[in-house]
Amino acid sequence: MASLTGTQRLVVTIAVLASFVTFLDGTVVNVALPAISDELGGGITTQQWVVDAYLITLSALILLAGSLSDAYGRVLIMRIGLIAFGIASVAVAASVDPLMLIVARAGQGAAGALLVPSSLALITATMRGEIQARAIGVWTAFTTAAQLVGPLLGGLFVDFLSWRMVFLINVLPIAITLVLLSRLKLPEHPRGAVVDWASGVLCAAGLGALVFALIEQPRLGWGSPAIWIPAVAGAALLIAFLVRQARVTAPMMPLDMFRVRNFGWGNLATLFVYAALSLNGFVVVVYLQQGAGLSATAAGLANMPVTILMILLSSRAGALAGKYGPRIFMTAGPILMGCGALLLLTVAIEFNYWWQVLPSMIVMGLGLSLTVAPLTAAILGSIDESRSGIASAVNNAVSRVAGLLVVAMISTIVGGMLDLNGFHSAALVTAGLMAAGGIVSWIGIRRIPAEAAAAEADV
């Protein structure tokens, strides 16, 4: 990245490390779920809540955090998020029962919400055009690798130390990021403290109620008032949230941004692709332990081909997308990942990783490498720099909500039990979601010249 200035290199490093913390913690937990369930109890329902408690607050508050980032300055918000995330991580590691663990995970999600939009906004605020696409490619390679290497690190900690230590992995990157952040000197121009707190409450309450209904529905049934009342209330609160966004002067999620073609269609593609990634990430790691009988470390190692391919290819894909446009990459990548998901249908009772899982991981890794950097660049590059914080927050919120909802529906998708049939059902759903992401990208994504992006963002 010789074309970047020293300050831009520092920005990319800080953005990578700050995002690494949240992306790592969002996936490292998957491999620890069986060990958590063995020690604290609760079965698949508790496992779903451990994942979704983090995603509820992260998804709901990441929009608010985007506004805070633009209102008070990205560096300040990032610093607060790093410190809060460290404190919440210690609380997770010290949990003595499922309730304490779930509450602490929600705290982690709230702190993580402050990190991702502010970190990516640092890149979009200091770089444009092909340089920005290349920088986002580097950011994507390492942050996505954090998601993919998380199961391996988690497996090693679970097998040789404790599942509690899994949540302390991020202490070192937090400390390093805080030091580097103190050295970053950027002129920040906060727009003022106009933050829509009421919308934050509507979004968080709506998502929380809806997810509660989806997770508990297989146990209680849709006919139970404990299910349909939260479901209806959650949907009503989310509708109220959208109505409010159209009316307030400083919305958390400016709906006019969705009139920008690449932003609107790109976020729809994000919804499908990240729902599929979340479903696949949860099901594969847990099934390899509980169904195929692998150790936590071996289950984590299963994802290494994807990680290696992401590190090797993602930056290059981002640069090529900046040169040739993102449409072909965002179409071919998800469809290729869908083919990789279908290869998981070869998994049988007589389990063999090398013939049944490895081919899928290789194909998924190639597809993911083609997809993520062009997707991020297409969406954020279409929005003016002055709204980079909220644009990043919206895109990240979409990806988190996608994961949140699909994890809440896992019991329904796998038929209540993650056995071989349930595993195959999840693979089919994953393939369908990936295909939808590719089709949406082909229909909606267009190459926008850098000089025209700002004009379209103001439409």
TrEMBL record:
Keyword annotations from UniProtKB, A to Z: Membrane, Transmembrane, Transmembrane helix
Topology within the bilayer: Multi-pass membrane protein
Main localization, broad class: membrane
Sequence ranges assigned to domain Major facilitator superfamily (MFS) profile in this UniProt record: 11-449
UniProt cross-references to Gene3D superfamilies, sorted A to Z: MFS general substrate transporter like domains, Multidrug resistance protein D
Subcellular localization(s) per the UniProt record: Cell membrane
Transmembrane segments: 12-37, 49-69, 76-96, 102-123, 135-157, 163-181, 193-215, 227-244, 265-288, 294-314, 335-355, 361-380, 401-418, 424-445
One GO cellular component term noted in the UniProt record for this chain: plasma membrane
PROSITE patterns, per the entry: MFS (PS50850)
Family matches, as Pfam families: MFS_1 (PF07690)
Any GO MF annotation of the entry: transmembrane transporter activity
Keyword RNA-binding included in the entry's annotation: no
Protein known as: MFS transporter
Organism: Microbacterium bovistercoris
